[in-house]
Amino acid sequence: MRSKTRSALLIAGGIAIGVMASLSQGSFAQRSSSNYGNDAEAVSPGLPLDELRTFVEILNRVKQGYVEDISDQDLLENSIRGMLDGLDPHSAYLNAEEFREISISTSGKFGGLGIEVQMQNGFVRVVTPIDDTPASKAGIQSGDLIVRINDTAVKGMSLTEAVKQMRGDIGSEITLTILREGRDEPFKVTMKRAVVRVESVKSRMLDPGYGYVRVTQFSSNTGDAVKRAIDTLQDKSALRGIVLDLRNNPGGVLSAAVDVSDVFLDAGGIVSIRGRAPNTDQQFNATPGDAINGAPIVVLVNEGTASASEIVAGALQDDSRAVIMGNRTFGKGSVQTIIPLANGAALKLTTARYYTPSGRSIQAEGIEPDVGIQDVNVTAAKASQVTPFSEADLAGALVNESAQPGDSKAQSASNDLAASDYPLYEALNLLKGLHILRSR
Asked: With 0-12 CB in 10 A as exposed, 13-18 as middle and 19+ as buried, what is 180?
């Protein structure tokens, strides 16, 4: 596994809402901020004097004529926020408090609702709810638009302002007004803020020999956690294959996405990063060793699969290591760098795009699954009143001497999985087929 320790942080994620302000479910790889320059002249050799004069004129007019007194510090900070907000949905100014809180969001424990968000057309768009959090339990879905926070309209707010509105004391209630595709009118969802403890990796056996590994986000230790989960599954049964579930995974630490990919890859590329600044370009490759020795993998994805999780899906797809199953992913193909500033604040700046091993950029496109499947609910069909007729029912039919009793318990478990999680049920069936094909 890889670990790097430098002064700036690379991010590939959105914004997580929390009591402690998780301003980024970020994808982190370390890089020195000196790569981007600490000297204003180095960044902008020719300053636009006319535009600067206009800025100063506006600053003075607001200072003198605005209906309420406002400090120079607030005016300048708001100007900085506006400059970054105008670049793209992921660049932002982080004050000292927000900068401290960003490390909390990647530690696996933070306070809030447990949703990953970004701005879209003046509203807050849900990228994905995080498993086992107030948001996921309340039924918040990827793609939901938050139009009101309690009684306050979101339209006109910055993302930072919306985040502040959604913060509050643990246990306090918050009501979000939601617009959802397929519903004619907005509806309200009330939930209680909580401390969100995210277990980034969960695992279990689906059937003997067929494992399931769920990665909910990528924090600094996720690669090691996936390896431990695989070891635990292999202790229970020789693995014939695994389902790797990346649905509604908003991303996280970039180096963790590389580590998770490397668990299953014996060779080949994982991801490359390309940007404008000097020394931005990087290439990450797999190291020898496949934790499941080439056993088949089915990766489950959906529209909430974003950023670092798309890196994993893209790497396993391009290196022909896994079959990707589900819906087209979110399509966040950019990398953000956290650059600490002298005043204790930080700049979160989009500095590069990342590319899959074949050179694809998934920015605004996403990963197209190899096998598409809709997330539907299924129910068991009513039992037929007519008993199926077969050779065994014929009078005097010969007995099969090698027949074994049917495993009704296994069939019942399979039916339960189909009803509770149909995409996972189909992924397991595909995995079994891949194992059969491979064994032949």
From this structure: middle
